[in-house]
Write a structure and sequence with these properties.
Layout lengths: L2 E5 L2 E3 L5 E8 L8 E6 L6 E6 L6 E3 L7 E6 L4 E6 L8 E6 L9 E5 L2
Parallel strand pairs: 2-10
Antiparallel strand pairs: 1-3, 3-8, 4-5, 4-9, 5-6, 7-8, 9-10
Amino acid sequence: QVQLVESGGGWVQPGGSLRLSCAASGFTFSSYSMYWYRQGPGKEREWVATINTSGGTTNYAASVKGRFTISRDNAKNTVYLQMNSLKPEDTAVYYCKSTITKWGQGTQVTVSS
């Protein structure tokens, strides 16, 4: 069964950090680029970051560039999103995605004091 399971979300104060994980199963993870998206309260889902199959190429939305880092471990079938210098506007449900998977349940990130 093709599946992605996100984890690592939670509550953090502004300026804090979180590391999200996304465990993949049911497909050849190392053959697919991976993406992180997010959907804030009352907002549309938006793209956050992309990583290619080897991990050598990454791209970021302007709103997170310089603060977030996407990475992957193909041996563990896992993609990560390291989030630093978090802001209240980063509050959202975060989803990982590949081109052949459906949306998962996501993981909630709340940034507030």
